[in-house]
């Protein structure tokens, strides 16, 4: 993008778009950029498909602000998203965000995000997203729900307060992140970590946050799903009083146990604040405490008999899958300063860190 004199006072916002064989939704995402009220942006399409479906989409739009980059070989979805979440600039932008190819921005999103960072004097913004469902006819319809308003309220969150959200959800959402590339101290990238599940990727990115973030509950973009999104959970098939919420599997148990080991009641108190936002949150919180075998809490929603059954079930899970727990912890790309490395005498796995921009992309 060539800037005139008047435009030089406006910071560039760069958008990284990981894509794989979804040209129609990619076009929608790119058009949402072109419709932004803030026009000073650059975008790079990170195409992971060997057939280069995205290239024709970019060429057809004929917008100099959009750069096409094709990976010589498929690097996998996790690594492609990693590139999109590289904290420093790739295209010379002061601000950056990731926009996955099946999502799209609302027209004033970039301008609002920049205004929020400047007003709140923080480096990272977590923005709420509207959950929309794509029908077979290609029309996107609202589900009436958002990605984060059940667990976050407007304001600044410390790292520990953010970690406390892991009792209820995966913490950060890739599509809701927006940051200042010049002042950010957090590294969202996971390197060669072999975690393919998107749920755990976002948990690990949450645990890498080392500075305050600001949450804005008004939606700035659409998070789209196909079909019945509520049917996508991985819950237990046990009776309700024995079942834990969806996603509470062995790795989640390991993460929560060691988070409680590190932060104890401080973490529980932060999570208790979130639990009191709704009855649903409170029930989930108490189930999660039992999932992590934590009993130093005055349980209100789960009867004593059911507590004992859940503790027994979760203790067996930990006992029979201890080797799995250890493997999970050793594979986590913990920040180098993270106290868990000292407490548990674990070494961080060897992960790739980018000292220079990971892609050599010419800036117009």
UniProtKB/TrEMBL annotation:
It comes from the Bacteria. Pfam families: Glycos_transf_2. Residues 17-139 form the Glycosyltransferase 2-like domain. InterPro entries: Glyco_trans_2-like, Nucleotide-diphossugar_trans. This is Glycosyltransferase family 2 protein. It comes from Leptothoe kymatousa TAU-MAC 1615.
């Amino acid at each position: 993008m060539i800037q005139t004199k008047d435009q030089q006072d406006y910071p560039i916002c760069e958008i990284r778009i990981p894509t794989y064989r979804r040209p129609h939704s990619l076009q929608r995402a790119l058009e949402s950029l072109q419709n932004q009220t803030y026009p000073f942006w650059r975008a790079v399409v990170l195409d992971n498909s060997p057939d280069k479906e995205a290239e024709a989409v970019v060429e057809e739009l004929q917008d100099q602000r959009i750069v096409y980059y094709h990976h010589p070989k498929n690097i996998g979805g996790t690594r492609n998203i990693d590139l999109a979440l590289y904290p420093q600039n790739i295209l010379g932008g002061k601000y950056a965000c990731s926009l996955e190819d099946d999502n799209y921005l609302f027209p004033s999103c970039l301008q609002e995000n920049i205004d929020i960072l400047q007003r709140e004097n923080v480096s990272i913004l977590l923005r709420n997203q509207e959950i929309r469902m794509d029908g077979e006819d290609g029309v996107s319809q609202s589900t009436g729900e958002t990605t984060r308003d059940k667990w976050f309220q407007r304001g600044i969150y410390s790292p520990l307060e953010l970690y406390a959200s892991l009792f209820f959800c995966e913490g950060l959402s890739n599509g809701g992140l927006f940051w200042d590339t010049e002042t950010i101290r957090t590294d969202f990238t996971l390197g060669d970590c072999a975690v393919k599940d998107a749920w755990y990727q976002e948990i690990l990115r949450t645990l890498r946050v080392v500075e305050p973030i600001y949450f804005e509950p008004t939606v700035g973009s659409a998070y789209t799903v196909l079909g019945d999104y509520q049917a996508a959970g991985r819950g237990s098939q046990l009776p309700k009083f024995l079942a834990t919420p969806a996603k509470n599997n062995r790795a989640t148990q390991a993460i929560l146990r060691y988070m409680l080991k590190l932060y104890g009641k401080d973490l529980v108190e932060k999570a208790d604040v979130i639990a009191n936002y709704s009855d649903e949150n409170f029930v989930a919180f108490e189930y999660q405490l039992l999932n992590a075998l934590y009993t130093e809490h005055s349980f209100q929603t789960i009867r004593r008999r059911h507590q004992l059954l859940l503790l027994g079930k979760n203790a067996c899970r930990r006992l029979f899958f201890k080797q799995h727990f250890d493997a999970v912890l050793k594979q986590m790309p913990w920040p180098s300063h993270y106290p868990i490395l000292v407490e548990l005498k674990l070494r961080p796995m060897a992960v790739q860190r980018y000292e220079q921009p990971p892609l050599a992309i010419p800036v117009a």
